[in-house]
Amino acid sequence: MLRDKNLIPLSHQHQRALALCVRIDRAQPIADIDIEAWQAEVAQLFEQEIKIHFAAEEDEIFLPAREFHELETLVDELIAEHRSLRESFRQAESRSMSAESLLAFAQQLSAHIRKEERRLFERIQQLMNADELEALGVGLESALRNAGTSCAMPNKTTKLRPRS
Fold it and tell me: What does the pLDDT look like over 97-143, one tens digit per residue?
């Protein structure tokens, strides 16, 4: 199903986060000497975009989605995943991640995004009418106003590497 125009800003942010996950995956194995650079980029992405993104989802998407009984459990799962991911972002900020925890973080973030896109957003588009989706879009526009809109530029250490 095509993404409704009112959810596209979140989907664009999801694409940028997935790009980071792909780069982390392709960089395996990550040498201990390179962990700091990766953590710096993860922390930067959180500070500039994902912190605002999570709040926007929680306030503008999850709350209205809860009105549909069939989405309550999914929303609860996504909120729990946000808590867990926030802890990973805190670890990146404090530079306490290992190569293994960085990879686990990337896998968790990727799975979380795919769950939102494939399950939550798809179902919201089926359950909500055009006016409800338009109201989501207005709320998201306001909530995302201060989020960054460009990818963090990978440095020499974190740039995309060709597959081996």
Answer: 999 999 999 999 999 999 999 999 999 999 999 999 999 999 999 99
CA-wise closest residue to 67 among 19, 124, 109, 148: 124
Q: Per the domain annotation, does 2 fall within a domain?
A: no
Q: In terms of residue numbers, what domain contains 132?
A: 8-143
Residue carrying structure tokens 């929680």? 58
Domain count for the chain, please give it: 1
Considering the entire predicted model, what is its pTM? Answer: 0.89
Q: Is residue 163 domain-resident? A: no
Q: Looking at the domain assignment, is residue 3 inside a domain?
A: no
Specify whether the CB–CB gap between 113 and 14 falls below 8 A. Answer: yes
- Residue 65's nearest CA partner among 134, 127, 4, 117 is 127
Q: Does residue 15 lie within any of the structural domains?
A: yes
Secondary element (H or E) of residue 161? none
Tens digits of residue pLDDT in 79-109: 999 999 999 999 999 999 999 999 999 999 9
